[in-house]
Amino acid sequence: MQSLNRSRTQSRANRSLSLGGMDFAEPKKKNNFVGKILLTAVLTALCILMLKQSPNFNTPSVFSHHEEGVTHLLVTGGAGYIGSHAALRLLKDSYRVTIVDNLSRGNLGAVKVLQELFPEPGRLQFIYADLGDAKAVNRIFSENAFDAVMHFAAVAYVGESTLDPLKYYHNITSNTLVVLEAMASHNVKTLIYSSTCATYGEPEKMPITEETPQIPINPYGKAKKMAEDIILDFHKNSNMAVMILRYFNVIGSDPEGRLGEAPRPELREHGRISGACFDAARGIISGLKVRGTDYKTADGTCIRDYIDVTDLVDAHVKALEKAKPGNVGIYNVGTGRGRSVKEFVEACKKATEVSIKVDFLERRPGDYAEVLADPTKILHELNWTARYTDLQESLKVAWRWQKSHLNGYGPVLVSSI
Ligand SMILES: NC(=O)c1ccc[n+]([C@@H]2O[C@H](COP(=O)([O-])OP(=O)(O)OC[C@H]3O[C@@H](n4cnc5c(N)ncnc54)[C@H](O)[C@@H]3O)[C@@H](O)[C@H]2O)c1
Ligand SMILES: *[C@@H]1O[C@H](CO)[C@@H](O)[C@H](O)[C@H]1NC(C)=O
Ligand SMILES: *[C@@H]1O[C@H](CO)[C@@H](O)[C@H](O)[C@H]1NC(C)=O
Ligand SMILES: *[C@@H]1O[C@H](CO)[C@@H](O)[C@H](O)[C@H]1NC(C)=O
After folding, report:
1. From the CA of 301, how far away is ligand 2's center (Å)?
2. What is the mean pLDDT of residues 141-151?
Protein backbone atom coordinates (compact mmCIF):
# COMPACT_ATOMS: atom_id res chain seq x y z
CA MET A 1 0.00 0.00 0.00
CA GLN A 2 1.30 3.40 -0.88
CA SER A 3 -0.29 6.73 -0.25
CA LEU A 4 -0.05 9.22 -3.06
CA ASN A 5 -1.64 11.98 -1.07
CA ARG A 6 0.71 14.86 -1.53
CA SER A 7 0.85 16.33 1.95
CA ARG A 8 1.16 12.92 3.55
CA THR A 9 4.00 11.67 1.41
CA GLN A 10 5.79 14.95 1.80
CA SER A 11 5.59 15.04 5.54
CA ARG A 12 6.56 11.40 5.78
CA ALA A 13 9.63 12.04 3.66
CA ASN A 14 10.52 15.09 5.74
CA ARG A 15 10.25 13.19 8.95
CA SER A 16 12.38 10.26 7.99
CA LEU A 17 14.96 12.68 6.60
CA SER A 18 15.24 14.65 9.80
CA LEU A 19 15.44 11.52 11.94
CA GLY A 20 17.98 10.05 9.58
CA GLY A 21 20.21 13.08 10.05
CA MET A 22 20.37 12.58 13.78
CA ASP A 23 22.43 9.50 14.36
CA PHE A 24 25.68 11.34 13.84
CA ALA A 25 26.73 11.58 17.48
CA GLU A 26 30.05 9.92 18.21
CA PRO A 27 31.13 11.42 21.55
CA LYS A 28 34.90 11.82 21.83
CA LYS A 29 35.48 11.67 25.59
CA LYS A 30 34.29 8.15 26.20
CA ASN A 31 33.87 8.32 29.97
CA ASN A 32 32.46 11.77 30.24
CA PHE A 33 29.26 10.70 31.95
CA VAL A 34 27.81 14.20 32.35
CA GLY A 35 28.58 14.91 28.74
CA LYS A 36 26.69 11.83 27.66
CA ILE A 37 23.64 12.75 29.70
CA LEU A 38 23.77 16.26 28.31
CA LEU A 39 24.09 14.99 24.77
CA THR A 40 21.17 12.63 25.24
CA ALA A 41 19.05 15.43 26.64
CA VAL A 42 19.96 17.76 23.79
CA LEU A 43 19.26 15.06 21.23
CA THR A 44 15.92 14.21 22.80
CA ALA A 45 14.93 17.86 22.82
CA LEU A 46 16.02 18.18 19.21
CA CYS A 47 14.05 15.11 18.29
CA ILE A 48 10.86 16.37 19.94
CA LEU A 49 11.31 19.74 18.29
CA MET A 50 11.71 18.20 14.86
CA LEU A 51 8.77 15.88 15.31
CA LYS A 52 6.63 18.79 16.44
CA GLN A 53 7.53 20.70 13.32
CA SER A 54 6.48 17.79 11.20
CA PRO A 55 2.85 18.36 10.18
CA ASN A 56 2.12 14.73 10.88
CA PHE A 57 2.82 15.13 14.58
CA ASN A 58 0.25 17.73 15.49
CA THR A 59 -2.33 16.83 12.86
CA PRO A 60 -1.80 13.11 12.27
CA SER A 61 -3.95 12.69 9.18
CA VAL A 62 -7.14 14.60 8.60
CA PHE A 63 -8.51 11.41 7.13
CA SER A 64 -8.09 9.44 10.33
CA HIS A 65 -10.65 11.38 12.37
CA HIS A 66 -14.33 11.98 12.00
CA GLU A 67 -15.05 15.63 11.64
CA GLU A 68 -18.28 17.35 12.52
CA GLY A 69 -20.11 18.33 9.34
CA VAL A 70 -17.76 16.45 7.01
CA THR A 71 -18.78 13.14 5.44
CA HIS A 72 -15.81 10.99 4.51
CA LEU A 73 -16.39 8.52 1.70
CA LEU A 74 -14.37 5.53 0.72
CA VAL A 75 -14.68 5.24 -3.06
CA THR A 76 -13.39 1.86 -4.19
CA GLY A 77 -12.52 1.71 -7.88
CA GLY A 78 -12.27 5.51 -7.89
CA ALA A 79 -9.60 5.45 -10.60
CA GLY A 80 -12.06 3.78 -12.96
CA TYR A 81 -14.57 5.27 -15.34
CA ILE A 82 -17.64 5.62 -13.11
CA GLY A 83 -15.75 5.82 -9.80
CA SER A 84 -13.67 8.80 -10.95
CA HIS A 85 -16.77 10.68 -12.08
CA ALA A 86 -18.41 9.89 -8.74
CA ALA A 87 -15.35 11.14 -6.84
CA LEU A 88 -15.40 14.38 -8.84
CA ARG A 89 -19.04 15.00 -7.97
CA LEU A 90 -18.52 14.12 -4.29
CA LEU A 91 -15.53 16.46 -4.03
CA LYS A 92 -17.51 19.23 -5.71
CA ASP A 93 -20.25 18.67 -3.12
CA SER A 94 -17.67 19.06 -0.30
CA TYR A 95 -17.40 15.43 0.69
CA ARG A 96 -14.04 14.11 1.86
CA VAL A 97 -12.90 11.31 -0.40
CA THR A 98 -10.50 8.40 -0.11
CA ILE A 99 -10.00 6.46 -3.32
CA VAL A 100 -8.80 2.88 -3.06
CA ASP A 101 -7.86 1.27 -6.36
CA ASN A 102 -5.21 -1.16 -7.53
CA LEU A 103 -5.07 0.41 -10.98
CA SER A 104 -5.55 -2.96 -12.61
CA ARG A 105 -8.15 -1.29 -14.81
CA GLY A 106 -8.36 2.31 -13.72
CA ASN A 107 -6.07 5.22 -14.44
CA LEU A 108 -3.75 7.09 -12.11
CA GLY A 109 -4.19 9.98 -14.57
CA ALA A 110 -7.82 10.31 -13.48
CA VAL A 111 -6.74 10.50 -9.83
CA LYS A 112 -4.17 13.17 -10.74
CA VAL A 113 -6.86 15.27 -12.43
CA LEU A 114 -8.91 15.08 -9.23
CA GLN A 115 -5.91 15.91 -7.03
CA GLU A 116 -5.15 18.96 -9.14
CA LEU A 117 -8.75 20.13 -8.87
CA PHE A 118 -8.88 19.56 -5.11
CA PRO A 119 -5.37 20.04 -3.73
CA GLU A 120 -6.44 21.32 -0.30
CA PRO A 121 -5.50 19.05 2.61
CA GLY A 122 -8.24 16.75 3.80
CA ARG A 123 -10.16 16.64 0.53
CA LEU A 124 -8.83 13.67 -1.44
CA GLN A 125 -6.35 10.92 -0.82
CA PHE A 126 -5.46 8.01 -3.02
CA ILE A 127 -4.47 4.66 -1.60
CA TYR A 128 -3.06 2.03 -3.90
CA ALA A 129 -4.33 -1.31 -2.65
CA ASP A 130 -5.98 -4.49 -3.73
CA LEU A 131 -9.40 -5.21 -2.27
CA GLY A 132 -8.63 -8.91 -2.43
CA ASP A 133 -6.02 -8.30 0.26
CA ALA A 134 -8.08 -8.41 3.46
CA LYS A 135 -5.15 -7.34 5.62
CA ALA A 136 -4.52 -4.24 3.54
CA VAL A 137 -8.23 -3.41 3.51
CA ASN A 138 -8.43 -3.76 7.29
CA ARG A 139 -5.44 -1.51 7.74
CA ILE A 140 -7.06 1.10 5.51
CA PHE A 141 -10.22 0.95 7.61
CA SER A 142 -8.29 1.27 10.87
CA GLU A 143 -6.22 4.20 9.65
CA ASN A 144 -9.15 6.11 8.16
CA ALA A 145 -12.44 7.28 9.62
CA PHE A 146 -14.96 6.54 6.89
CA ASP A 147 -18.60 7.51 7.20
CA ALA A 148 -19.73 5.66 4.10
CA VAL A 149 -18.52 3.46 1.26
CA MET A 150 -19.29 3.62 -2.44
CA HIS A 151 -18.11 0.29 -3.76
CA PHE A 152 -17.39 0.56 -7.50
CA ALA A 153 -14.30 -1.62 -7.80
CA ALA A 154 -14.95 -4.64 -9.97
CA VAL A 155 -14.23 -6.27 -13.26
CA ALA A 156 -17.11 -5.51 -15.57
CA TYR A 157 -17.21 -7.13 -18.99
CA VAL A 158 -19.86 -9.73 -19.72
CA GLY A 159 -17.83 -11.39 -22.48
CA GLU A 160 -14.69 -11.63 -20.36
CA SER A 161 -16.71 -13.10 -17.51
CA THR A 162 -17.71 -16.10 -19.62
CA LEU A 163 -14.04 -16.69 -20.53
CA ASP A 164 -12.61 -16.16 -17.04
CA PRO A 165 -15.42 -16.69 -14.51
CA LEU A 166 -13.14 -17.11 -11.48
CA LYS A 167 -11.73 -13.65 -12.00
CA TYR A 168 -15.30 -12.38 -11.71
CA TYR A 169 -16.30 -14.32 -8.62
CA HIS A 170 -13.00 -13.28 -7.05
CA ASN A 171 -12.98 -9.58 -7.90
CA ILE A 172 -16.70 -9.01 -7.50
CA THR A 173 -18.20 -11.43 -5.00
CA SER A 174 -15.24 -12.24 -2.81
CA ASN A 175 -13.90 -8.67 -2.72
CA THR A 176 -17.33 -7.34 -1.76
CA LEU A 177 -17.26 -9.73 1.17
CA VAL A 178 -13.87 -8.34 2.20
CA VAL A 179 -15.19 -4.77 2.06
CA LEU A 180 -18.32 -5.72 3.98
CA GLU A 181 -16.36 -7.49 6.72
CA ALA A 182 -14.08 -4.48 7.10
CA MET A 183 -17.12 -2.19 7.31
CA ALA A 184 -18.68 -4.43 9.95
CA SER A 185 -15.60 -4.63 12.12
CA HIS A 186 -14.86 -0.92 11.86
CA ASN A 187 -18.43 0.17 12.32
CA VAL A 188 -18.89 1.94 9.00
CA LYS A 189 -22.62 2.07 8.53
CA THR A 190 -23.48 3.18 5.02
CA LEU A 191 -22.91 1.26 1.79
CA ILE A 192 -23.79 2.31 -1.75
CA TYR A 193 -23.28 -0.68 -4.01
CA SER A 194 -22.75 -0.72 -7.80
CA SER A 195 -24.93 -3.42 -9.25
CA THR A 196 -26.16 -3.98 -12.75
CA CYS A 197 -29.11 -4.83 -14.95
CA ALA A 198 -27.12 -7.96 -15.84
CA THR A 199 -28.44 -9.42 -12.56
CA TYR A 200 -31.89 -9.69 -14.20
CA GLY A 201 -30.78 -11.92 -17.05
CA GLU A 202 -33.42 -12.17 -19.76
CA PRO A 203 -36.73 -11.19 -18.23
CA GLU A 204 -39.85 -11.82 -20.25
CA LYS A 205 -41.59 -8.62 -19.29
CA MET A 206 -40.29 -5.18 -20.13
CA PRO A 207 -39.59 -2.69 -18.70
CA ILE A 208 -37.62 -4.14 -15.80
CA THR A 209 -38.78 -3.14 -12.33
CA GLU A 210 -36.93 -3.87 -9.08
CA GLU A 211 -39.47 -6.69 -8.57
CA THR A 212 -38.50 -8.43 -11.80
CA PRO A 213 -37.00 -11.81 -10.86
CA GLN A 214 -33.22 -11.86 -10.99
CA ILE A 215 -32.02 -14.81 -13.05
CA PRO A 216 -28.59 -13.79 -14.32
CA ILE A 217 -27.26 -15.71 -17.31
CA ASN A 218 -23.53 -14.96 -17.24
CA PRO A 219 -20.81 -15.03 -14.54
CA TYR A 220 -20.70 -11.23 -14.39
CA GLY A 221 -24.41 -10.99 -13.58
CA LYS A 222 -24.22 -13.95 -11.22
CA ALA A 223 -21.23 -12.57 -9.34
CA LYS A 224 -23.04 -9.25 -8.85
CA LYS A 225 -26.24 -11.01 -7.77
CA MET A 226 -24.29 -13.05 -5.21
CA ALA A 227 -22.67 -9.89 -3.89
CA GLU A 228 -26.13 -8.32 -3.57
CA ASP A 229 -27.36 -11.38 -1.67
CA ILE A 230 -24.43 -11.26 0.73
CA ILE A 231 -25.04 -7.57 1.39
CA LEU A 232 -28.78 -8.11 1.93
CA ASP A 233 -28.29 -11.09 4.27
CA PHE A 234 -25.78 -9.17 6.32
CA HIS A 235 -28.07 -6.18 6.37
CA LYS A 236 -30.98 -8.13 7.90
CA ASN A 237 -29.14 -8.44 11.16
CA SER A 238 -27.33 -5.15 11.24
CA ASN A 239 -28.05 -1.51 11.47
CA MET A 240 -26.39 -0.78 8.18
CA ALA A 241 -27.81 1.67 5.64
CA VAL A 242 -27.68 -0.02 2.26
CA MET A 243 -28.40 1.30 -1.21
CA ILE A 244 -28.07 -1.03 -4.18
CA LEU A 245 -28.09 0.68 -7.56
CA ARG A 246 -28.60 -1.46 -10.64
CA TYR A 247 -27.20 0.48 -13.57
CA PHE A 248 -28.24 -0.01 -17.16
CA ASN A 249 -25.81 0.88 -20.01
CA VAL A 250 -23.57 3.69 -18.90
CA ILE A 251 -22.31 6.25 -21.44
CA GLY A 252 -20.94 9.78 -21.58
CA SER A 253 -18.40 11.66 -19.56
CA ASP A 254 -17.87 14.86 -17.58
CA PRO A 255 -19.57 17.71 -19.50
CA GLU A 256 -16.67 19.98 -18.56
CA GLY A 257 -14.21 17.60 -20.17
CA ARG A 258 -12.05 16.86 -17.13
CA LEU A 259 -12.60 13.10 -17.08
CA GLY A 260 -13.38 10.44 -19.63
CA GLU A 261 -13.58 6.71 -20.22
CA ALA A 262 -10.20 5.14 -20.92
CA PRO A 263 -10.23 1.36 -20.65
CA ARG A 264 -7.03 -0.61 -21.17
CA PRO A 265 -6.40 -1.19 -24.90
CA GLU A 266 -6.35 -4.95 -24.35
CA LEU A 267 -9.95 -4.75 -23.11
CA ARG A 268 -11.20 -3.22 -26.34
CA GLU A 269 -12.40 -6.52 -27.70
CA HIS A 270 -14.68 -6.94 -24.68
CA GLY A 271 -15.64 -3.30 -24.82
CA ARG A 272 -18.95 -1.58 -24.91
CA ILE A 273 -20.72 -0.03 -27.85
CA SER A 274 -19.66 3.57 -27.19
CA GLY A 275 -15.97 2.61 -26.99
CA ALA A 276 -16.25 0.64 -30.21
CA CYS A 277 -17.99 3.54 -31.89
CA PHE A 278 -15.23 5.98 -30.92
CA ASP A 279 -12.52 3.52 -31.95
CA ALA A 280 -14.22 3.21 -35.33
CA ALA A 281 -14.42 6.99 -35.64
CA ARG A 282 -10.70 7.21 -34.88
CA GLY A 283 -9.88 4.50 -37.39
CA ILE A 284 -8.42 2.18 -34.74
CA ILE A 285 -10.90 -0.42 -35.91
CA SER A 286 -12.17 -0.57 -39.44
CA GLY A 287 -15.82 -0.15 -38.62
CA LEU A 288 -18.70 -1.29 -36.44
CA LYS A 289 -20.16 -4.75 -36.54
CA VAL A 290 -23.82 -4.76 -35.65
CA ARG A 291 -24.79 -8.27 -34.72
CA GLY A 292 -28.39 -9.19 -35.33
CA THR A 293 -30.92 -7.33 -37.45
CA ASP A 294 -33.83 -9.73 -37.08
CA TYR A 295 -34.80 -9.18 -33.45
CA LYS A 296 -38.43 -8.49 -32.72
CA THR A 297 -37.87 -4.77 -32.40
CA ALA A 298 -38.96 -1.87 -34.59
CA ASP A 299 -35.78 -1.79 -36.70
CA GLY A 300 -34.62 -5.35 -35.96
CA THR A 301 -31.59 -4.37 -33.85
CA CYS A 302 -31.28 -4.74 -30.06
CA ILE A 303 -32.69 -2.14 -27.76
CA ARG A 304 -30.86 -0.88 -24.68
CA ASP A 305 -31.33 1.79 -22.03
CA TYR A 306 -28.37 4.21 -22.03
CA ILE A 307 -27.74 6.21 -18.89
CA ASP A 308 -25.36 9.17 -18.85
CA VAL A 309 -22.63 8.91 -16.22
CA THR A 310 -23.46 12.39 -14.89
CA ASP A 311 -27.00 11.26 -14.10
CA LEU A 312 -25.73 8.00 -12.66
CA VAL A 313 -23.42 9.79 -10.29
CA ASP A 314 -26.26 12.08 -9.26
CA ALA A 315 -28.27 8.97 -8.34
CA HIS A 316 -25.40 7.92 -6.04
CA VAL A 317 -25.36 11.23 -4.23
CA LYS A 318 -29.14 11.15 -3.79
CA ALA A 319 -28.91 7.55 -2.55
CA LEU A 320 -26.23 8.58 -0.07
CA GLU A 321 -28.31 11.49 1.20
CA LYS A 322 -31.38 9.28 1.68
CA ALA A 323 -29.61 6.26 3.18
CA LYS A 324 -30.99 5.42 6.62
CA PRO A 325 -29.59 3.04 9.25
CA GLY A 326 -31.39 -0.29 9.11
CA ASN A 327 -32.93 0.48 5.74
CA VAL A 328 -32.21 -0.96 2.36
CA GLY A 329 -33.05 0.64 -0.98
CA ILE A 330 -32.75 -1.15 -4.32
CA TYR A 331 -33.08 0.95 -7.45
CA ASN A 332 -32.83 0.63 -11.18
CA VAL A 333 -30.85 3.49 -12.66
CA GLY A 334 -31.87 3.98 -16.25
CA THR A 335 -33.80 6.43 -18.39
CA GLY A 336 -36.79 4.22 -19.14
CA ARG A 337 -36.20 4.97 -22.81
CA GLY A 338 -34.93 2.35 -25.20
CA ARG A 339 -32.60 3.03 -28.13
CA SER A 340 -31.85 0.57 -30.85
CA VAL A 341 -28.32 -0.20 -31.96
CA LYS A 342 -29.13 1.44 -35.27
CA GLU A 343 -30.22 4.61 -33.49
CA PHE A 344 -27.08 4.50 -31.40
CA VAL A 345 -24.85 4.20 -34.43
CA GLU A 346 -26.61 7.10 -36.15
CA ALA A 347 -26.20 9.26 -33.04
CA CYS A 348 -22.56 8.29 -32.90
CA LYS A 349 -21.96 9.24 -36.53
CA LYS A 350 -23.53 12.64 -35.91
CA ALA A 351 -21.65 13.19 -32.65
CA THR A 352 -18.27 12.32 -34.15
CA GLU A 353 -19.00 13.72 -37.61
CA VAL A 354 -17.31 10.62 -39.02
CA SER A 355 -19.13 8.38 -41.47
CA ILE A 356 -18.38 5.15 -39.68
CA LYS A 357 -18.55 2.00 -41.74
CA VAL A 358 -21.20 -0.38 -40.41
CA ASP A 359 -21.47 -4.09 -41.15
CA PHE A 360 -24.65 -5.93 -40.32
CA LEU A 361 -23.98 -9.50 -39.23
CA GLU A 362 -25.66 -12.53 -37.71
CA ARG A 363 -26.87 -12.46 -34.10
CA ARG A 364 -24.32 -12.97 -31.35
CA PRO A 365 -25.32 -15.78 -28.98
CA GLY A 366 -26.43 -14.55 -25.57
CA ASP A 367 -27.70 -11.12 -26.63
CA TYR A 368 -31.29 -10.38 -25.78
CA ALA A 369 -33.60 -8.24 -27.86
CA GLU A 370 -34.56 -5.58 -25.39
CA VAL A 371 -33.37 -4.34 -22.00
CA LEU A 372 -35.22 -1.41 -20.55
CA ALA A 373 -35.43 0.06 -17.06
CA ASP A 374 -38.54 1.14 -15.27
CA PRO A 375 -37.11 4.01 -13.20
CA THR A 376 -40.35 4.86 -11.37
CA LYS A 377 -39.17 3.72 -7.96
CA ILE A 378 -36.06 5.86 -7.86
CA LEU A 379 -38.06 8.88 -9.03
CA HIS A 380 -40.60 8.43 -6.23
CA GLU A 381 -38.23 7.52 -3.43
CA LEU A 382 -35.07 9.47 -4.25
CA ASN A 383 -36.52 12.21 -6.45
CA TRP A 384 -34.00 11.24 -9.10
CA THR A 385 -34.63 11.36 -12.79
CA ALA A 386 -32.32 11.21 -15.81
CA ARG A 387 -31.65 14.63 -17.28
CA TYR A 388 -28.92 13.95 -19.82
CA THR A 389 -31.15 11.94 -22.14
CA ASP A 390 -30.01 13.33 -25.48
CA LEU A 391 -27.98 10.38 -26.76
CA GLN A 392 -26.18 12.38 -29.41
CA GLU A 393 -25.23 15.08 -26.90
CA SER A 394 -23.87 12.52 -24.40
CA LEU A 395 -21.80 10.94 -27.15
CA LYS A 396 -20.59 14.35 -28.30
CA VAL A 397 -19.31 15.16 -24.82
CA ALA A 398 -17.55 11.80 -24.57
CA TRP A 399 -16.13 12.16 -28.09
CA ARG A 400 -14.69 15.57 -27.26
CA TRP A 401 -12.67 14.00 -24.44
CA GLN A 402 -11.67 11.02 -26.58
CA LYS A 403 -10.47 13.27 -29.37
CA SER A 404 -8.32 15.37 -27.05
CA HIS A 405 -7.03 12.29 -25.19
CA LEU A 406 -6.06 9.93 -27.96
CA ASN A 407 -3.79 8.16 -25.53
CA GLY A 408 -6.34 8.07 -22.72
CA TYR A 409 -4.77 9.41 -19.53
CA GLY A 410 -1.30 8.64 -20.88
CA PRO A 411 1.14 11.11 -22.47
CA VAL A 412 -0.48 13.31 -25.10
CA LEU A 413 -0.26 12.04 -28.67
CA VAL A 414 -0.41 14.35 -31.63
CA SER A 415 -2.67 13.27 -34.44
CA SER A 416 -4.61 14.57 -37.37
CA ILE A 417 -8.23 14.11 -36.25
N1 LIG B 1 -19.86 0.65 -17.20
C2 LIG B 1 -21.08 0.12 -17.18
O3 LIG B 1 -21.82 0.21 -18.17
C4 LIG B 1 -21.60 -0.54 -15.93
C5 LIG B 1 -22.92 -1.01 -15.93
C6 LIG B 1 -23.42 -1.62 -14.78
C7 LIG B 1 -22.64 -1.70 -13.64
N8 LIG B 1 -21.35 -1.24 -13.65
C9 LIG B 1 -20.56 -1.35 -12.43
O10 LIG B 1 -19.98 -0.11 -12.09
C11 LIG B 1 -18.75 -0.29 -11.42
C12 LIG B 1 -17.66 0.54 -12.07
O13 LIG B 1 -17.52 0.16 -13.43
P14 LIG B 1 -16.62 0.94 -14.47
O15 LIG B 1 -17.29 0.88 -15.76
O16 LIG B 1 -16.27 2.26 -13.91
O17 LIG B 1 -15.34 -0.02 -14.53
P18 LIG B 1 -13.78 0.33 -14.50
O19 LIG B 1 -13.06 -0.90 -14.89
O20 LIG B 1 -13.52 1.58 -15.27
O21 LIG B 1 -13.49 0.65 -12.97
C22 LIG B 1 -13.32 -0.34 -11.99
C23 LIG B 1 -12.17 0.08 -11.10
O24 LIG B 1 -11.99 -0.88 -10.06
C25 LIG B 1 -10.62 -1.14 -9.89
N26 LIG B 1 -10.43 -2.49 -9.34
C27 LIG B 1 -10.81 -3.66 -9.90
N28 LIG B 1 -10.47 -4.69 -9.11
C29 LIG B 1 -9.85 -4.15 -8.03
C30 LIG B 1 -9.27 -4.70 -6.87
N31 LIG B 1 -9.25 -6.01 -6.67
N32 LIG B 1 -8.73 -3.87 -5.95
C33 LIG B 1 -8.76 -2.52 -6.15
N34 LIG B 1 -9.30 -1.95 -7.23
C35 LIG B 1 -9.84 -2.75 -8.16
C36 LIG B 1 -10.03 -1.01 -11.27
O37 LIG B 1 -8.64 -0.73 -11.23
C38 LIG B 1 -10.84 0.14 -11.85
O39 LIG B 1 -10.24 1.39 -11.58
C40 LIG B 1 -18.46 -1.79 -11.46
O41 LIG B 1 -18.83 -2.34 -10.22
C42 LIG B 1 -19.37 -2.28 -12.57
O43 LIG B 1 -19.73 -3.61 -12.38
C44 LIG B 1 -20.83 -0.65 -14.78
C1 LIG C 1 -4.91 -6.12 -8.60
O2 LIG C 1 -5.53 -7.08 -7.78
C3 LIG C 1 -5.40 -8.40 -8.18
C4 LIG C 1 -6.22 -9.26 -7.25
O5 LIG C 1 -7.56 -8.91 -7.29
C6 LIG C 1 -3.95 -8.81 -8.22
O7 LIG C 1 -3.86 -10.16 -8.62
C8 LIG C 1 -3.23 -7.91 -9.17
O9 LIG C 1 -1.85 -8.19 -9.17
C10 LIG C 1 -3.43 -6.46 -8.79
N11 LIG C 1 -2.90 -5.62 -9.84
C12 LIG C 1 -1.99 -4.68 -9.60
C13 LIG C 1 -1.52 -3.89 -10.77
O14 LIG C 1 -1.59 -4.47 -8.48
C1 LIG D 1 -9.01 -10.61 -10.30
O2 LIG D 1 -8.76 -11.86 -9.73
C3 LIG D 1 -7.77 -12.62 -10.35
C4 LIG D 1 -7.66 -13.89 -9.56
O5 LIG D 1 -8.73 -14.73 -9.87
C6 LIG D 1 -6.46 -11.86 -10.46
O7 LIG D 1 -5.51 -12.64 -11.15
C8 LIG D 1 -6.70 -10.54 -11.16
O9 LIG D 1 -5.53 -9.80 -11.26
C10 LIG D 1 -7.76 -9.79 -10.41
N11 LIG D 1 -7.99 -8.43 -10.87
C12 LIG D 1 -8.37 -8.09 -12.10
C13 LIG D 1 -8.64 -6.65 -12.32
O14 LIG D 1 -8.54 -8.88 -12.98
C1 LIG E 1 -37.04 17.04 -6.52
O2 LIG E 1 -36.06 17.48 -7.42
C3 LIG E 1 -36.40 18.68 -8.09
C4 LIG E 1 -35.37 18.93 -9.16
O5 LIG E 1 -34.06 18.75 -8.69
C6 LIG E 1 -36.51 19.81 -7.07
O7 LIG E 1 -36.81 21.01 -7.71
C8 LIG E 1 -37.59 19.44 -6.07
O9 LIG E 1 -37.65 20.41 -5.06
C10 LIG E 1 -37.32 18.08 -5.45
N11 LIG E 1 -38.46 17.66 -4.65
C12 LIG E 1 -38.36 17.21 -3.42
C13 LIG E 1 -39.62 16.76 -2.77
O14 LIG E 1 -37.29 17.16 -2.83
Report:
1. 38
2. 98
Residue 220 Cα to ligand 3 midpoint, Å, equals: 13
Residue 350 CB contacts under 8 Å (≥ 6 apart), including other chains: 392
Q: Which residues pair with 254 in a beta bridge?
A: none
DSSP 406: T
pLDDT, position 34 = 66
Strand partners, 230: none
> What is the pTM for the complete model shown?
0.87
- Neighbouring C-beta atoms of residue 138, cutoff 10 Å: 15
| Beta pairing, strands 96-101 & 124-128 | parallel
* 221 in Cβ contact with 154 (< 8 Å): no
C-alpha 318/C-alpha 53 separation (Å) is 42
- Give the active site residue among 81, 168, 200, 220: 220
Q: Decide if 95 is catalytic.
A: no
Kindly report the backbone phi and psi dihedral angles of residue 330, in degrees, each rounded to the nearest multiple of 5, phi listed first.
-120, 125
**Interval 80-100: pLDDT, tens:** 999 999 999 999 999 999 999
